[in-house]
Design a protein that fits this description.
Length: 167
């Protein structure tokens, strides 16, 4: 092998080593964040992060208002909201509240690292709903740009006689 090939091989090994260290660091960081909030009191890490104001982060909702269009009375719809951690600390979604039993949020209480995005799915049952629907959910998180975030979805239910909007 000539010197050029040796230098190229050494450069490639350094690049592979650096990329491995970076990916391991990201994976380790997620574990470090979780361990920082572990406890023997049975308190979820997301709840502890909610009161750790020194390590709050910021969140951006990429689609805080969604329209699901038209569905038949009795059909179910899944609405997906997407968020991004725009801060420098880990993001935890600690609670999601729906004022109505027709709306059921589904989320995991995993760590969303700075710069990462994640989805929040909401299942909506249109049975017995009015023609024009506007519903909201409230998401609680460990964020300095408001701990509670209101997300809205709306649409129309066909096959119903009512025209009153429910909130």
């Amino acid at each position: 092998m000539n010197n050029r090939n040796i230098y190229l091989l050494a450069f490639l090994l350094v690049c592979i080593s650096c990329s491995t260290m970076i990916s391991c660091k990201t994976k380790k960081s997620r574990e470090v964040y979780l361990h920082a909030y572990e406890n023997k009191l049975g308190i979820k890490p997301s709840k502890l992060a909610q009161v750790d104001s020194a390590n709050f982060t910021t969140i951006q909702w990429l689609d805080p208002v969604q329209n699901f269009g038209k569905v038949k009375d009795g059909d179910s719809v899944i609405i997906v909201f997407r968020c991004r951690n725009t801060g420098d600390n880990p993001l935890f979604l600690s609670d999601i509240h729906s004022p109505c039993g027709c709306t059921i949020p589904r989320y995991t209480e995993k760590v969303i690292l700075p710069g990462e995005e994640d989805d929040l799915a909401v299942w909506f049952n249109s049975t017995g709903q009015d023609k024009n629907v506007s519903k909201s959910i409230v998401v609680t998180s460990n964020t300095s740009n408001g701990a509670k975030h209101r997300l809205v979805f709306e649409g129309q239910i066909t096959g119903t006689d009512s025209t009153v909007t429910k909130h």
